[in-house]
Amino acid sequence: MQNGDIHILRISDYKQQKNDKGTLNHSTTLEQAILDAMSEAVFLIDLDNKILQCNKSTVKFLGKSKKDEIIGQTYWELLHGTSSPVEGCPFMSMCESGQRETLIYNVMGREMEISADPFFDEEGKIMGAVHIITDITDQKQMEDQIKGLEEKYRTIVNSLSDPIHVVDKNLKITFLNPAMTNWLAKLNISPNIVGKTIFEAFPFLVYEKVFSEYEKVFQSKTRLTSSGKSVIENKIIFTELIKIPIIHEGCVNQVITVLRDITEQINISNKFETVIENLIDMIAILDFKGEFLYVSPQVYNITGFTQEEIIGKNGFTFIHPNDLDKVLKTMARLLKERKRVSLEYRTLNKEGNYIIVSASGRIAKIDGEEKIIMAIRDISKRKISEQKLRESEEKFRNITDQSLMGIGILQDGVFRYFNKQFEKIIGFSREEINGWSSGEFLEAIHPDDRDFVREQARKKQQGAKDALTQYQFRGINQEGKTEWREVHSKSIKYSNKLADLIAVVDINERKIAEEKLIQSEDNFRTIAEQALMGILIMQDDKVEYVNSTVLQIFEYSFEEVKNWSMKDLINIIHPDDLKLLRKSRLEMRTNNSNITAYYSFRAFTKSGKLRWIDQFSKIIVYKGRQAELVTIMDITDKKEVEQELIKLSTIKSELLRRTSHELKTPLVSIKGFSNLLLELYSDKLDDYVLNTIGEIKQGCIRLEDLIRDILKSAELDSESVQLKKTSEDLSFLIRVCVNELKEFVKLRNHSINLQLQDDLITCFEKEQIHQVVSNLLTNAIKFTPINGVIELKSIKKEDSLIFSIKDNGIGFIDEEKERLFKQFGKIERYGQGLDIVSDGSGLGLYISKKIIELHGGKIWLESEGRSKGSTFNFTLPLISESN
């Protein structure tokens, strides 16, 4: 139901209606419930005026107790008590027009709206009508009240002396009051303008300006005051227009326009406009409530507002909230004392910023009424300059008071200014320094340095070019103690006279430290020359120090290397190791100077021998500047041993591989014969023999698994594995592994919790990573007591994928963690009373680690201890197949 109309949509099978010989079907239960929920009386009648169906409101409206008293009756008899329709019957009108008809009818003292809507058969013939009876008594009463209010409104408007007219949304004039009619007659304009647009009625109006003003009022729903100038019959007419929106149900439908002819006032004001146009100050006239009655053109230069935008507005609304109280008190004093007042305050400009203005005002009579005349000047720039000056002085004092240096201004042999740190460093109180006569400050300088300082002070006072701006001297404090000080000085203007700005630093501790450093350097050289390691100090890419061990390793003399640069060092390094060495050195310099960098490389001696070098580098401070401390060790012998160990490891891996291959042949035979006995002769063997053969078979399977792991381990150790990476979905692979082991999970009665993101796409060899995931998941199932919880989780980072398998199993202690990823690093659990599966080769995690590292990832374990579960994690780089 909307706006008093009820719309009923009924979809029926007309074939069924035909089968029922054209009679109407009864509504479904849902339709009846909807009808009964309506407050209006709704009933259906056929062409014989018989009621076919009705709702509860109809029963109540007709004064009946149930529907049976209504269904089948003629509605005229029930509604009007007549055997024929009343005059204007909507049903009869509907039958003639074939569309909805409505009648307002008084029933028992209430105004009722009775409507009849036709419904048709499939051939488009009217079958009957839907009657709806709505009580509109309250609505009619409200409309009568509105008409009464409108009459009062017109009476009030007609009694006003200001010309008033009303326009609608199309800017058509809908009403004029008598004052407007008289004003039009005075200007020889026809008052017959109702129904015309304002531009048809007043062709002299500027279309763009007037249209935009009305558009603004209709859209903003706020009052707008403007002024205008028009030429009518060679007369210049000035008007002030106040446009007031009429808001109904949230929308502006009409606008009341109040017109004031201000031609006389404007003519008077023009006499002094020329006088004030060239003034710097803005002239404003306000009433005692603070409303602007006039502002001079300077308002635009000062605030950015036009005169039209300011006139009629209250001046207090522009004032900064923090200044409003001050302005109000000044205004009250003006009204009370009737004397000129002046003040400074902040006011809002058109850009939304506050500017500082200076205003002076007095009360004067204008047109017989007392008004406030004000002269307002923008003093923002002056205030900003004053503020900057104060801030500058304040900053200088704050900086000097907080400075760790003593700062003083020396002029004519006396200190005109000095900070607290100056007192502390010099060792005299403020009163004592202020009491010094010209040149007396020299008494606070050591006698051996006094002439030197006096000469520098004289040169600075005279502006000599050879005057030193920085020097050191010894001072004597009030207690007679000698201390080292350093002075930085500069000639400045102070109170328009030449002066010396002095910054003095206490360097006594630094001097002591320098002496200790000299001693420390001597000690360092003594230790370094005795060291078995080579020690080298590089600064600014030049060799600053080298000990004898370095010279011995590379077969050079001190004279040959003392002037070496970084380029000379690079020349003795093997070309294949230069790239890695440069990268490591760059990382050390750019990342963290506190980290000691370590790298191994090959270098040539003077005679051309190739040596392996272990180098440790660290950024240090050497003689007050950053340097690089390098220690080196000749590890050539160690490298040769390592090479031998690598050969032995290769031989070991090859031996394991061949032994494993040799073991596979007899294992295949044993397993085959075991299967043969179990399949062909199981009915001829007793249980003991069958169990024994079964154990033999299981032993063969375990040995096969062990041999497979040994071969896989040997293959990975050989470093000959070439990965066949393709772009794969790690999430899909993990789900495959879980599905493959679901029976094992079910056997242990574990619950699996998958927290995997979709489309974890990166490049890896599917079979290899499948083995890693299967190994980790199998371990979690085996080493978690029954009824355990296993959680598989993935995290996608910017450059890698992280996969973790977490269980609430038996966990690991620190000692076990160290063995876990090593060959045959199995942790023996058998016989410890743990409800776990303890078989395995001890190579699964070792193989998994090798595979993950081959892919450029990492694998690690997290466990807080025994019976606290464990989490195995591994990462894979996030790369595309093209990379």
TrEMBL record:
Write down the PROSITE patterns for this protein, in alphabetical order.
Answer: HIS_KIN (PS50109), PAC (PS50113), PAS (PS50112)
* Top EC group: transferase
Alphabetical list of Gene3D superfamilies matching this protein: 1.10.287.130, Histidine kinase-like ATPase, C-terminal domain (3.30.565.10), PAS domain (3.30.450.20)
One biological process term in Gene Ontology: regulation of DNA-templated transcription
The record's catalysed reaction(s) read: ATP + protein L-histidine = ADP + protein N-phospho-L-histidine
Its EC number is 2.7.13.3
Q: Which CDD domains match?
A: HisKA (cd00082), PAS (cd00130)
The record, for InterPro entries, names:
HATPase_C_sf, HATPase_dom, His_kinase_dom, HisK_dim/P_dom, HisK_dim/P_sf, PAC, PAS, PAS-assoc_C
Ranges for the PAS domain? Answer: 27-80, 268-338, 412-464, 540-593
Residues annotated as domain Histidine kinase: 658-880
Alphabetized GO MF terms: phosphorelay sensor kinase activity
Q: Which UniProt keywords apply?
A: Kinase, Phosphoprotein, Transferase
**Which protein, by its recorded name, is this?**
histidine kinase
- The organism encoding this protein is marine sediment metagenome
Q: Taxonomic lineage per UniProt?
A: unclassified sequences, metagenomes, ecological metagenomes
